[in-house]
Design goal:
Length: about 160
């Protein structure tokens, strides 16, 4: 018989996870009425090169969950250092998030942000509940990149990398 696993203190776990530096993204899609939906996420990762798959996660309690569950396509916009204010804007509950930044509908049906370090246009291939989050896996249909420094998040703060060599 397996021994019970001791509980991990949530604050301690959050602090330990915060030691891992991540990029910062805005994940975007269209809702059922064709409106732009987006949020800041740093839970983005590469999953596979063949086939080309990426994953990201969203809290089950997020007000945007329904739109992403229903959206057949989404985009992951990897923010550049200069886009830190957009990150803050999309992390809020504002209604007018898309009033800042240069946004356009991509050819694969998701809102794309100009000036990003990278953009991944994806088709949703699966999603599943994992604890208090929903994991979304997308097949990359197209991607772009720019040689600009990405925005980094670590220890609860934004960090700048500086010049990319």
């Amino acid at each position: 018989m397996d021994a019970p696993v001791p509980a991990v203190d949530t604050r301690h776990l959050r602090n330990a996870l915060g030691r891992f530096a991540t990029g910062v993204t805005i994940v975007s899609c269209l809702d059922a009425e064709g409106r732009y939906v987006g949020l800041t996420a740093n839970s983005f990762n590469a999953l596979s090169l063949a086939p080309p798959l990426v994953l990201w996660s969203l809290r089950e309690s997020s007000p945007s969950l329904g739109a992403f569950l229903a959206a057949p396509r989404f985009a992951v916009n990897v923010l550049a250092e200069a886009q830190v204010e957009l990150s803050r804007r999309f992390a809020s509950r504002r209604e007018d998030k898309f009033d800042d930044g240069l946004w356009a509908l991509g050819e694969h049906g998701a809102p794309l942000l100009a000036g990003c370090a990278a953009v991944f246009e994806c088709e949703q291939v699966s999603q599943q509940v994992a604890g208090d989050h929903r994991l979304f896996i997308g097949r990359v249909l197209a991607c772009t990149e720019s040689p600009v420094p990405p925005l980094v998040f670590q220890g609860g703060h934004y960090h700048l990398l500086g010049e990319v060599l």
